[in-house]
Amino acid sequence: MILRMSSLFLRTLREDPADAEVPSHKLLVRAGYIRRTAPGIYTWLPLGLRVLRNVEKIVREEMDAIGAQELVFPALLPREPYEATNRWTEYGPNLFRLKDRKGADMLLGPTHEEMFTLVVKDLYSSYKDLPLSIYQIQNKYRDEARPRAGVLRGREFVMKDSYSFDIDDAGLENSYELHRKAYIRIFDRLGFDYVIVKAMSGAMGGSRSEEFLAIAKNGEDTFVRSPGGYAANVEAVVVPQAEQVDAAAVPAAEVVDTPDTPTIDTLVDALNAKHARTDGREWTAADTLKNVLVTLVHPDGSREPLAIGIPGDRAIDEKRLGAQVEPAEVVAFEDADFAKHPTLAKGYIGPGVLGKENTSGIRYLLDPRIAEGSAWVTGADKSGFHVVDLVYGRDFTADGTIQAAEVRDGDPAPDGSGALATARGIEMGHIFQLGRKYAEALDLKVLDQNGKLVTVTMGSYGVGVTRAVAAIAEGNHDELGLIWPREIAPADVHLVATGKDAAVFEKAAELAGELESRGLTVLYDDREKVSPGVKFKDAELLGVPTIAIVGKGLAEGTIELKDRRTGTREDVPVADIVDQLVAAVRA
Amino acid sequence: MILRMSSLFLRTLREDPADAEVPSHKLLVRAGYIRRTAPGIYTWLPLGLRVLRNVEKIVREEMDAIGAQELVFPALLPREPYEATNRWTEYGPNLFRLKDRKGADMLLGPTHEEMFTLVVKDLYSSYKDLPLSIYQIQNKYRDEARPRAGVLRGREFVMKDSYSFDIDDAGLENSYELHRKAYIRIFDRLGFDYVIVKAMSGAMGGSRSEEFLAIAKNGEDTFVRSPGGYAANVEAVVVPQAEQVDAAAVPAAEVVDTPDTPTIDTLVDALNAKHARTDGREWTAADTLKNVLVTLVHPDGSREPLAIGIPGDRAIDEKRLGAQVEPAEVVAFEDADFAKHPTLAKGYIGPGVLGKENTSGIRYLLDPRIAEGSAWVTGADKSGFHVVDLVYGRDFTADGTIQAAEVRDGDPAPDGSGALATARGIEMGHIFQLGRKYAEALDLKVLDQNGKLVTVTMGSYGVGVTRAVAAIAEGNHDELGLIWPREIAPADVHLVATGKDAAVFEKAAELAGELESRGLTVLYDDREKVSPGVKFKDAELLGVPTIAIVGKGLAEGTIELKDRRTGTREDVPVADIVDQLVAAVRA
Lengths: 587, 587
Prior knowledge:
The structure is a homodimer. Chain A is α+β, with helices and mostly antiparallel strands. Chain A has 15 helices and 32 strands. Chain A has three domains: about 20-235 and about 420-475, Bira Bifunctional Protein, Domain 2 (BirA Bifunctional Protein, domain 2, 2-Layer Sandwich), CATH 3.30.930.10; about 255-400, YbaK protein (Alpha-Beta Complex); about 490-585, 3-Layer(aba) Sandwich (Rossmann fold).
């Protein structure tokens, strides 16, 4: 196939789009691959669509290779199945809802767990029909609060979602492993530098869950790794409960006068100035217990206050907290909320009203680093006062623990495999043992070998297809433009004819034809009256991995080959050029 | 590729689905190609998806062959462009509308004229950029009042829509011709028995417009053909205005007493009984002028009465009338409406109050068959009375003509090419010279050769892709099941292993592998414990054109080949089978 730039529906831009912040977004728009239609909603222009189809092809081939079967569900779906699993409500404002002309509630599918479960229930009835893996590559819809970074987080996007159906846990484990291996092949072929991390299973009710993250400094996900091989999405890090310590030597708790110390810093300074420790050490933020109040908004709209106690030297990580309380959303605890809880002394809140007598009526959860028997400085529930030597277990209690405090570089890995280092990534894939949650909600049962009805166990596996295009661009560019991995590129060769010499254009056209006949896709810059400089700039921007330039060298019988990634140039005799290009592409 | 029926996600059904009326719907569901998800919304199961992709591939190849370039727009679109063209309103209840989380109005694209126009405006600015043809193959949404016949008329469906952009009318004519030829190739390859008919351009504001109709007795469209080559969708038939006749010999109009004659039949009987014609001929319905009242509901909700005068021997054709008054909808003229117009004598309405003094205030349009100078019996605007010898032009006038009366077998073709015959078809494609309507509404201008801004002229070209699957099935089946054209079939060969002999299954598996290595797709019925009878029934139902049966004959060294369409059977030596199958498929 030959794509002639003289007629290709393409305009490259020299300026970054005003709304773009990350390189992939800037470059995909500038190079004419995508075009914004509405916030988080994009049009795929011809070259972009070629790239998208290349990604789809890789995903499809690897899914087919593990025996998964492709089908396609509608994007416009009836409410009832999502009502049965409560997701109609739980999805909150992220779900696009609409009514049809008869007033029936419908939605645009955010994921299709319900539909996959129902189609298997519809067609299958016996253990003999299992295992089964089915998938689709299809438009998904999520009304993101903050669509961002072009197609990296859009509101309409293409996803491959597959589901496995097994009669028992061993079967699920096997289906999961098959998908895991397929995903490794997919992300290898897509050219990602990626990491497989433990992920939250949380509200979805399943067990084993891993994410494939493309390592990217502009990624939205933070993950941690240890030298010993631990790797987890930061939401999934489970800090172990600190072991009990002996509180026998801790004196009785004492209320101290600490005027004007509503923050940890002011508190630590005041303590060191006026209430020196008996052991001679200085007070630090790590000695303090900070009690943070938030409001949970449940999907039904109800609001619940929540108090979280964490060491004063750490902050709440909103994503970790969010993952713990899903599907509730976390919003700030406002002055109006304080007004409803008069026992709370803002800036001086302590376990007095939260954790022991709990006169506040608010649920109180502690960071697992807070050991039973450990002593803390914390609020005395009276403005201007704190309490010292307040011992967890002796002087106060809590309603449980929560994984909500930030995880930091240097924290110990939960499995003892060394110090954690944090990094950022883009979630490209998620594999997940759903278990029986959906099968139970929608009553998917089959007969087992003994003729008994048993609930099927399911796995769920997703790949962000449109997102992959952005993530590949994020990991494959330089200051001049995009640099596509060969299997993803919109063309095999970018052939540039320069100058005004008719012989050059004739030779280039002949070459394009020969390459096409050898099965290559050629992006042929046949534009007249466009300067070589502009053509070279476009070639760098568009990012086809191999650039062939027919120009001045032709008089000496050579064509210049340029490797877009390495920048190396080579003059190749005209007689050898086709073979050499075919070899480069097939390599 | 080998599709093994032992693990294929497929269940064939022996019973027709309860909601299915037409053969294609029944068979596509029974054969496990599609499955209903909601009214007019379907899931494509693995074999169905293969068929759908085959149709898409043909459409794509032929669009690419005329230099059209593929891109893809979102399905979820912002309101503003559709507001600019007034389609947000005009589409009425057929448009799926929704609001996003910020309250912005959005829609699910029914067609993408606006988006195509805007993307060209966005990227192009000069006559040098034209001509351009761009297309997409993508999900469309229309909230049909009566979704029917499975995927023949769905609410979510796949359509190929393309648009051409030209600097002048000659360019548009050329782009139109290119698409027309591509469509002929597409519908030839899809195996349709089709007809190209003149179509309405109507409200869309364009000029030349043709439809490709698959001839099908269950089709929703009625078309007419003449021996001389005239062919038109019945909505597009333009009956010429009857020529003026001489009314000199017609006596003065006379009101006659015709009690209890509110219908044409009772009127004709009463006239023949009590008011014999002077020329001795009997009165017939064709002598009467019937005045029909309807109410138009405009997109803004306003209601307008309309009176239509047609010869009494014809009925109003709702589709022809609907096409004339688009985007208004036609509803019945109710008693309440009569109450608002007291001069109307129900059952005896005449041009007295409608067409001359027009005391009713109602717009009055006549069928073009009503010639100036012709005399009619019609209502006298007084209950129980009619008027005879009322001459159009002499005794009454009207506000214009309307093409709303039925067209019948035997009517003369408008171009004089003989008598019309009516038949039914399924609209598979529509090509349409849009002209400048959208370009004007959205201000798409480019610089011409003289540096002057000119409005671009556009063509619009659609193919119903999901509908094509149903229409092909509608035209390719028998009482046993589907019979796919080869290029559309989900597999090249349906290979059936029968009996319990291990040697049979071994040979069949070997054969499947050999066929796969030759590039064929094999649907291999490798199911154990399924009787030959069930396997043969399934093969007939599924409709792969070539069936190969490995069974009893294997002992004698033969395999049975069956042609699904002709039913011919042949025993082929094992040694020849692969070559013979490959030859049959490649033929």
